[in-house]
Amino acid sequence: MAQASQQLQSASEKLIESQLIKTAQVLEETLDEQISRLDNLNEDDLEVIRQRRIQQMKEESKQRSEWLAAGHGVYSELANEKDFFAACKTSTFGLVCHFYRESTLRCKIVDKHLAILAPKHIECRMVKIDAEKSPFLTKRLNVRVIPTIILVKNEQICDRIIGFDELGGHDEFSTAMLEWRLAVGKVIKYTGDLSLPPDASKSTSGLSYSSITKRRENKSVRSKCIGDNDDSD
């Protein structure tokens, strides 16, 4: 019995070793092809690549300047409801709006994390608005729980974060956790693993990318134009 088990383990190890060797060979061949392609480039080809890169850098610099001019890069407060609609029009890649109440302690926690994330993700404007001073907007967007974070993309409400349930269900969630949740809503550029939240080692009640998207489907959460009469959740 033990001998059969050892033989099976040995065969499995040999199979894995064989697969690793094949994978390494494929990667090596791909790398050789890329090196050969680069070696065969002439001066004209290199100049075209250089010009394309310069143009790309210019466009990125222009976009960055436009974002900064529109108020991106800092976490700020909107003075009134009209400013919210204006922000939706200018910040089409992504807008994060935190509906807060001065007396709610959890809003201070959201403030802390968004203040850190705003300069890190200048592609997305991050703002807050006093829910008590914006009753029309609060009612129109169906904001019932404070804090609520509304996510807007291309002038459409694409997602919302209500309370802390989707941030781990506790006050001690990390900035990375909120960053991940915003990435799930597709309002920021994200290079991490969307399939698993950063605070997965803590008690997150089975929270994952799939669980959030499933929740949205079950509740029929859909994108709506800011100009629509209401945004149901």
Structure description:
Residues 201-212 have a biased composition (Polar residues). InterPro entries: Thioredoxin-like_sf, Thioredoxin_domain. This is Thioredoxin domain-containing protein 9. It comes from Trichobilharzia regenti (Nasal bird schistosome). Residues 80-164 form the Thioredoxin domain. The protein has 233 residues and is of the alpha/beta class. The protein has two domains: 2-65; 72-225, 3-Layer(aba) Sandwich (Glutaredoxin), CATH 3.40.30. It contains seven helices and six strands. Strands 1-3-2-4-5-6 form a six-stranded mixed sheet. The longest helix is centred in the first third of the chain and has 38 residues, at 2-39.
Compile the SSE list and pairings.
Blueprint: H1 2-39, H2 43-69, E1 75-77, H3 81-90, E2 95-100, H4 105-120, E3 125-130, H5 135-140, E4 148-153, E5 156-162, H6 175-184, H7 209-218, E6 224-225
Parallel strand pairs: 1-3, 2-3
Antiparallel strand pairs: 2-4, 4-5, 5-6
Key descriptive features of the protein:
233 residues; alpha/beta; Glutaredoxin; 2 domains; six-stranded mixed β-sheet; 7 helices; 50% helix
Order of helices and strands: HHEHEHEHEEHHE
In what range is the share of β-strand residues? Answer: 5-15%
CATH architecture of the largest domain: 3-Layer(aba) Sandwich
DSSP summary, beta strand count = 6
- CATH fold-level label of the largest domain: Glutaredoxin
Name of the CATH homologous superfamily of the largest domain:
Glutaredoxin
Class based on secondary structure composition and strand pairing: alpha/beta
Q: Residue ranges: pLDDT <50 for 5 or more in a row? A: 228-233
- The side-by-side strand order for the widest beta sheet comes to 1-3-2-4-5-6
Main β-sheet: number of strands, strand sense, barrel status? Answer: 6 strands, mixed
Q: Class of the largest domain, according to the CATH hierarchy? A: Alpha Beta
If you compute it from the alpha carbons, what radius of gyration comes out, rounded to the nearest whole angstrom? 24 Å
Mean pLDDT: 85
Oligomer description: single chain
| Number of separate domains | 2
Helical proportion?
40-55%
By DSSP (H or I, 4+ residues per run), the number of helices equals 7
Overall shape: it is flat
Measured between the Cα atoms of the first and last residue, the distance is 60 Å
Protein name: Thioredoxin domain-containing protein 9
InterPro entries: Thioredoxin-like_sf, Thioredoxin_domain
Domain Thioredoxin: 80-164
Pfam families: Thioredoxin (PF00085)
